[in-house]
Amino acid sequence: MGIYTIFRRELTSYFLTPLAYIFIVIFLAMAGTFTFFVGNFFGRGQADLQPFFQFHPWLYLFLIPAITMRLWAEERKTGSIELLLTLPISMTDAVLGKFLAAWCFTGIALALTFPMWITVNILGYPDNGAIVAGYAGSFLMAGSFLAVGAAISPLTKNQVIAFVVTSVVCFVFTVGGTGVVLNFFTGWAPTLVVDTVAQMSFMTHFNAISRGVIDARDMVYFASVIGFFLFANVIFVDLKKAG
Amino acid sequence: MAEMIAIDGLTKRFGAHTAVDDISFSVNRGEVLGFLGPNGAGKSTTMKMITGFLAPTAGTAKVCGFDIQDSPIEAKKKIGYLPEGAPAYPDMTPAAFLDFIARVRNVDGALRKRRIADAVEKTQLGEVLYQSIDTLSKGFKRRVGLAQALLHDPEVLVLDEPTDGLDPNQKHEVRGLIKAMSYDKAIVISTHILEEVDAICTRAMVIAGGRIVADGTPVELEQLSRHYNAVAVRLEDEADTDAVKAALERVDGALSVEANKYAGVLTVYPKDARSLIAEVGQVMRHGRWKVAEIRVERGHLDEVFRRITQA
Ligand SMILES: Nc1ncnc2c1ncn2[C@@H]1O[C@H](COP(=O)(O)OP(=O)(O)OP(=O)(O)O)[C@@H](O)[C@H]1O
Ligand SMILES: [Mg+2]
Description:
The structure holds two protein chains of two kinds.
Chain A: H1 2-14, H2 19-38, H3 50-53, H4 56-78, H5 80-84, H6 91-111, H7 114-123, H8 128-152, H9 159-175, H10 179-185, H11 191-199, H12 202-210, H13 216-240
Chain B: E1 3-14, E2 17-28, E3 32-36, H1 43-50, E4 58-63, E5 66-67, H2 72-78, E6 79-82, H3 94-104, H4 109-123, H5 138-150, E7 156-160, H6 168-181, E8 186-190, H7 194-200, E9 203-208, E10 211-216, H8 218-223, E11 231-235, H9 241-249, E12 254-259, E13 265-270, H10 277-287, E14 291-296, H11 301-310
Parallel strand pairs in B: 3-8, 3-9, 6-7, 7-8
Antiparallel strand pairs in B: 1-2, 1-4, 4-5, 9-10, 11-13, 11-14, 12-13
Bound molecules: adenosine-5'-triphosphate and magnesium ion.
Adenosine-5'-triphosphate binds near residues 19, 37, 40, 42 and 45 of chain B.
């Protein structure tokens, strides 16, 4: 009950400011631009959404911190955190309610890319199962980015700092799985280290899912990342709420 | 249960600084307790611990029998809290904000509508109900915070400077509101307005440096003032001043007699807070001095406040 009420307030509050609309417009515009121009959607001559999904981590990298930066930083700055945390709800309710609202909002933005899906179905005969998997993977990855940002948000009253730090942390989580970083380790570091670095990365797991292979291990990975950072979120809010 | 708030050994340290230092007291149903004290005394910090926002470094706070640390949800259900500065969600309208608070507090169905309407009427928010909170004036923001605290008709009200920023009419309204609610609640308010203590508090507590330095009814606090029961005499003829002063100084029980800065006014301070009006009257009649006015002074709370908080 507590979670749902917080969730409801948070989600409606996105649409009270221009933030929601700006976010959605930019998300859709960027997703389209990357897919059609950078990803060479038409030139590839293949009916799938690989070029579309492939850029999601990079989109999230700077769009998700814009959502999460205000999550707790703003509550601390306006003092409404004192009101929120003296209501008869648990800290976990507050943290989960906020997180779920942010995730739901991102889900709405993601869902609004459906014309893309329609387009590939008009142009050819794509593997729709793989596309569903891609959407699921992207949604899970968005949740992980959000959890990281939500955990960082209570550490500062300054939204700009929250934005930058979240981007940097998410960047580390993202590039860990790219060739550049992995090549740096291969050759001299033990395979175990290379694998661990790769396994820690959003990219590795997202790529696995978006190729259409839904493996429980990738799901567990994202769920653990989300769980871990939400736990950290509760601790950080408790630690920083006073001042 | 009469004892609605029970505080025992409450202490809060911020690093090396002790903001609240081993405070114990309790508040019963029907009491309105006024927290007084200089800036930084620890009033708000104490309230934050009672309402469960801050965890105490030591000590306990119980609200309606529920320990705020052990059973926070039960305790918080009993409390209506106006935090310092009346924070709210600036993007929301008062209507949406109050609806949110009512939902979190599980006030449902027809009752929700009624309680919101009731709180809006009590705090006179009707005209700004659909205007976003960040565009409201300071006084209206405070009233939104107050409405939010009253919404669920709580048994315990903790109000941090409820009348700060209100115009004189609203101050009067809010005081009346607090008084009217007090018979079946335990209310704690903090204030820097000393006349408020006289107007609404059944009990006043002065806090300084994180400790309780005075605790009693407003009258008991006034009795600590040297003006309490002093007798002021205004003479018709200023020329009598010196003679009258000499005569009054001989009154039994008079501690001192002071000539006021206004010519012809003398004040007799008693030794033991007993009014000497009869004796003074006798001296005046005996000396056949003409009296324009004679009255017994009440204590000056601001003087008491200054003395005990600067010691
Ligand atoms: N989060 C915090 N971190 C460090 N010190 C704090 C914190 N909150 C309060 N303090 C300190 O604790 C002391 C008590 O502050 P508090 O806000 O309780 O005072 P107050 O009695 O409410 O004062 P005022 O009349 O100005 O509202 C002050 O010295 C303040 O600086
Ligand atoms: Mg204060």
